[in-house]
Amino acid sequence: xxxxxxxxxxxxxxxxxxIALIPLHAHSLQTTSPCAPSNTVLAQDLASLFKWMMxxxxxxxxxxxxxxxxxxxxxxxxxxxxxxxxxxxxxxAYTAALQDTTAMRSVHVIKLGNRYFVLDPFKWAGQRTPxxxxxxxxxxxxxxxxx
Length: 147
Description:
- By secondary structure, the chain is of the alpha+beta class.
- The chain has one domain (31-146).
- It is built from 3 helices and 7 strands, in the order ββααβαββββ.
- It has helices spanning 41-54, 59-68, 84-97, and strands at 10-14, 17-21, 79-80, 108-112, 115-119, 130-134, 141-146.
């Protein structure tokens, strides 16, 4: 069972003052849902990035789409997935692609045409996070980038 860091707050007495210590370990902030919330700053930034990538065919946008193995689609069709089963499948595929052992992760899953872009907002490598583009069945990794 997942530790309930959010529900518990460690209290410490220091110099006569009570200080609440809230753990900052990334996994302590995850929810139990396999779908990461789409109302975060990171999610909004991702939505803006994909919208920008779809709005033109200049060399920088084409290069971004090519690097991420993402087709050009109508930006109105870009959608964050909120289906629990699909997010769970995406989280499992992401974990396998990264050869990671994280269990019960929450991921952003973004549907872009016939592709899924998957990113764990709590998985960091330095100041970046790995993201993986999968095919429509979430069974084949098409690209991996650091965001």
